[in-house]
Amino acid sequence: MSRQYMFSAILLVLLALFTSGCLTAERKSYKITMTGKQSGTCTITFHNIISPKEEGRDISFKDFAELQTDYVEGDKIESEFPGCRNVKKKLYEKDGQLNGEITFEFDSLSTLKMFKYDEKSPVMMYFGSSQETFIESNGTYGGETMPVAFWPTSTTSMTLTTKLSDPNPDAVSLVEQYRKWKK
Prior knowledge:
4-stranded antiparallel beta sheet, 11 strands, 7-stranded antiparallel beta sheet, single chain, 4 helices, 23% helix
């Protein structure tokens, strides 16, 4: 394979990644209920799912199709949370916004990207490397220099809400696409 061909192939892959739709939501809420030392159930709700415009163009139709095929009907959620099982997914409208909800069971805190050093340590969730910004929790937040939520070791019900994106006036809510799809 020539160097020029290899460079062209890599350039095409990068171009495809950067020009694909970019689904996002305004907020993300976690509700985790522990049923064992490492196991439990989790519900993650995506509030106000939106589609940013691409070069000024409304691509909400394409993004809704991606949401439907990759996330709701596909296994994108399962690949993002390895080890999750009994996954249930739904889209619904609330207060004029499209929300998405996934519920699943897990056998290890690592499925949720959470950690507990030992039996006496708090449960911890780090979200500094993601695009999420802390809003509120029933645990303790470590602050911007340590973006970790902590819950006491005895906690069996944990909640966390994060901000995913600032409301962009140019972004298009996917609620209209959802309404058309429901008909």
